[in-house]
Design brief:
Rossmann fold; 4-stranded antiparallel sheet; single chain; alpha/beta; 8 helices; Arc Repressor Mutant, subunit A; globular
Length: about 240
């Protein structure tokens, strides 16, 4: 069963989300604020594939819940819900480990499409793990393991979210190639993604903080001005 945790304090919006996700074949657990969301996550022993978190909630806001859940599970899919005026909060959510965000108001079609896209990524990762998929991709001092979604730098483990892993997989498959933002967006978030390209930039910034020796002067994930990014895995050689 595809299990989703939905944390939204506005009853009408929460019911709207639950009804449409259940129609889409998902098993939904509801929480009316952030503190209850964390409690229900614990009660279920983390048995969720995706968490949908409203940013503005009483007792514990969505950003705090995102940070808490990401610490506990790097593979959990996390989608933030935000108002159009919460631009900085969107970026903050992504920097804390969210995979995507949806801006209110949104349609049932957009909601289910975004959840489906994230769930597909998670399902592929689980399938690789269950089938004892052992393939590794190497680039300079880095080793990307496609079975356990891990990245090693000089033998040291770097924790990655689902989105970060897929970006790295795309880079490793295209070393030294300039990849524009739209290509990265389609590869990671899917052809049907209707969000903004800046989600790519935020995830690149987060990746640089994890893998670069000096994130402000990156030598592995290099900016190609006016286009996007390219991977220079042998930069340390």
């Amino acid at each position: 069963m595809k299990n989703i945790l939905v944390a939204e304090d506005e009853t009408a919006i929460r019911e709207f989300i639950v009804i449409n996700l259940e129609r889409g074949g998902y098993n939904v657990t509801e929480a009316e604020n952030g503190a209850i969301a964390v409690r229900k996550y614990e009660e279920a022993n983390g048995d969720f594939d995706i968490a949908i978190l409203d940013i503005m909630m009483p007792e514990m806001d969505g950003l705090s819940v995102c940070k808490e859940l990401r610490k506990r599970n790097g593979n959990l899919g996390i989608i933030m819900l935000s108002a159009r005026t919460q631009e900085m909060d969107k970026v903050s959510g992504l920097m804390l480990g969210a995979d995507d965000y949806i801006t209110k108001p949104f349609s049932p079609t957009e909601l289910v499409a975004r959840v489906d896209a994230l769930y597909r990524r998670i399902a592929i990762a689980e399938l690789r793990s269950e089938n004892n998929f052992k393939e590794e991709m190497k680039s300079g001092d880095f080793v990307l393991n496609l079975k356990n979604h891990s990245l090693l730098k000089k033998g040291k483990l770097i924790e990655l979210t689902q989105v970060e892993f897929q970006i790295m997989e795309y880079f490793f498959s295209n070393p030294g190639v300039s990849l524009d933002r739209s290509a990265i967006l389609k590869y990671v978030w899917g052809e049907a993604y209707v969000g903004e390209e800046k989600i790519v930039d935020v995830n690149i910034r987060r990746l640089r903080m994890k893998i670069e020796d000096t994130p402000s002067a990156p030598k592995f994930i290099v900016t190609v001005w006016g286009l996007g990014y390219k991977w220079e895995g042998n930069a340390s050689k």
